[in-house]
Specification:
- The protein has a single domain, classed as Rossmann fold, CATH 3.40.50.720.
- The protein is about 40% helix and about 15% strand.
- The protein has seven helices and seven strands.
- The chain has a seven-stranded parallel β-sheet, with helices on both faces.
- Helix 1 crosses helix 7, helix 2 packs parallel to helix 3 and helix 3 runs parallel beside helix 4.
- The longest helix is centred in the middle third of the chain and has 22 residues.
- The N and C termini lie far apart (about 50 Å).
- The relative contact order is 0.15.
């Protein structure tokens, strides 16, 4: 079973890789640094647009005929109100989150159409609820959710499942500006009804069954793994 994990050196990608250790799978991992992840060799690769994705998949196809699962862990956090968000900021947010997901989807399908497969993307709880200062990132993540539902319908006939996980705030390099600020961290904890922010392992333990068990009856779904952020409100 060939599994591509894009940006496997990130917090969630690394946790997924750790969880897959010992399973009978062949991991194809990209990393912007080229460093090994939990003892697994990585491809030194950085997303820079469509040419970089084309190049990545050409390299993969030179060694593998089939991909069974693809996970896109590329993403970003961007918290500014719309009037303070430049067009350049907005374009970059769409690029690293939405466009990368579309290009990875586009290139993965030809390697799955014969035998089926699984694609997993990451949205955000912020795309389903109104959160202040999230206009740009919510637009990008909302686009991923719409893409997932459409792609699931398009490729169902090929036994290709397409899903997304929408986390709440997770302790990672992307969120370090929030979690390193005690005031911001405590506010974030109170927004999650379980009283804490998430860990990468909170996400990966739900992601892995969607990757290796062929998610046989789950497709077109956006699964909220967010400590209650998007679904509950704590009484004051």
């Amino acid at each position: 079973m060939n599994i591509l994990i894009v940006n496997g050196s990130g917090a969630i990608g690394s946790s997924i890789i750790k969880g897959l250790s010992g399973k009978s799978v062949n991991l194809i991992i990209t990393s912007s640094t080229g460093d090994n992840v939990h003892g697994n060799k990585t491809m030194h690769w950085k997303y820079t647009g469509s040419d970089s994705v084309d190049s990545l998949f050409e390299s993969i196809k030179s060694e593998h005929i089939q991909l069974d699962s693809v996970v896109n862990c590329l993403g970003s956090i961007f918290l500014k109100p719309a009037h303070l968000t430049s067009e350049k900021d907005f374009d970059e947010i769409l690029d690293i989150n939405l466009k990368s997901s579309f290009l990875i989807l586009k290139n993965s399908i030809p390697m799955m159409r014969k035998n089926g497969g699984n694609l997993l993307f990451f949205s955000s709880a912020a795309s389903s609820i109104g959160m202040a200062n999230h206009e740009a990132i919510s637009a990008a993540k909302g686009g991923i959710e719409a893409m997932v539902r459409s792609a699931a319908a398009t490729y169902a006939k090929n036994n290709i499942k397409v899903n997304a996980i929408a986390p709440g705030l997770v302790d990672s390099n992307l969120s370090k500006n929030i979690v390193s600020n005690e005031v911001a961290l405590n506010v974030s904890k109170r927004m999650h009804s379980v009283g804490r922010i998430g860990t990468p392992d909170d996400i990966s333990k739900f992601a892995i069954p969607l990757i290796v068990d062929n998610s046989s009856w789950v497709t077109g779904s956006v699964i909220n793994i967010d400590g209650g952020l998007s679904t509950t409100k704590i009484a004051s």
